[in-house]
Amino acid sequence: MSESRSARRKRARMTRTQIALTSTLIWVVCGGGAWGLWYYLRQAGNAAPDAQVVKAQLREQLGVGVELSTVFAMSTDKGLEWQKQQINKKFGLLGRLGVHWSRVCIGWDRIERERDKPSWDIADAVVSAAREHGVNLLWVIDGVPVWASDSGRTSGLPKDLADEKGRYPQFVMKLVERYKADVHHWEIGCEPDLDEVRDSQGALKYPQLLDRASAAIISTDPKAKVVLGSSSGRIVRQIKWTRDLVQQYRNTLAKLPFHVANFQLHGADLNVAAEGSRSAFEQYVQINKQQIDEAMRELQLADMPVWITEFNYAANRSAQLDAKYEGEDGQAQVVSKLFASLVVGHPERKVFWADLLDDLNAQDTLTGFVPISADGKIGEPRPAYQALQTLLAD
For helices 383-392 and 51-61, what crossing angle results, to 10°? Predict the structure, then answer.
């Protein structure tokens, strides 16, 4: 991906309009940390668990994404050994947090920039670092090499997408075969609606892309799980994307080519009633959670796991839209009180904080737990890092 996801999201985001808040909170914040989660689990109908049981459960349900764009961007100047060190530092931070899951994106365009000359060094280093620090990976397969793209851009479609034995499924099979001992969950596209997923006649081609990838994955690793790529934008837009895909698949296939539905929830998408006003992020989070659950029931997919692969809230006041959660301490409170709330009542769900480190391409919105400088130097963790560590670490 030549352009960061945050930059593309910012470019694509439409003017916000007010959404009527028609539901009340389905749970009441009574405190952060382990005590707060104990309360929420009780509300979900569980017996009061031991604190270590709570932490063990959360370590399997809460994850943190690792952005690798800085590693790729500085590859020429810094060299492979520096890249490996950076990767290990990032996964070391995850290990100290106590998380057992991370989401990474290393696309086809990164691995095979030149036709028939794949470079697996960075991908190997990521898998090795994750294994060393006890982290499971959700791997996003995204991006098409320029040489294989129908548009000559990494956001295009594979030229031979119509061929079920084309270059794209061949790459996916090689990828899964190489890492199937360590990686078992594959997300097909990150916000693919921002990519060029329509043909010259305007027909949506993402379903065919997903079908090709899913068949390649399952044929190589029958126990693997395929995660649907979520659209960009607010939950209403994401639900429509999912509904349209499901209906299209049901008209053409005997079963859906994915095992996990996928949504995203960003603090920057919090709707405000009027210019300069602030809204309640707690209520926004819970209403979106409720809308997702209702949509899955309507689609008769209530038993399908739903993962939220990007959740975040900024650490800088200029990007925060709730006066209750301001500054770095406000971001930490969101971690303590709201992050874990998204898994309540859903033991199969995983929720990923979008980025461990800030995105260098979006310095006006600092959503990471750890700052990073333009030269790749990793700074001291923010309070949100300690807040999550309190929830997860032994």
Answer: 120
CB 141 within 8 A of CB 175: yes
pLDDT tens digits, 313-366 = 999 999 998 888 999 999 999 999 999 999 988 999 999 999 999 987 777 899
pTM of the model: 0.88
Q: 73-78, long-range: CB within 8 Å, 24+ apart, which pairs? A: 74/375, 74/376, 75/122, 78/376
Neighbours of 377 (CB within 10 A): 9
Provide the pLDDT for residue 199.
66
Give the separation between CA 12 and CA 191, rounded to whole angstroms.
11
**Nearest Cα residue to 160 out of 99, 205, 110:** 205
Measuring CA to CA, which residue among 1, 132, 134, 137 is closest to residue 66? 137
* Phi and psi at residue 3, to the nearest 5°: -120, 135
Radius of gyration over every alpha carbon of the chain, rounded to an integer in angstroms: 20
Instruction: Take residue 210 and report the two structure tokens written for it.
Output: 């997903």
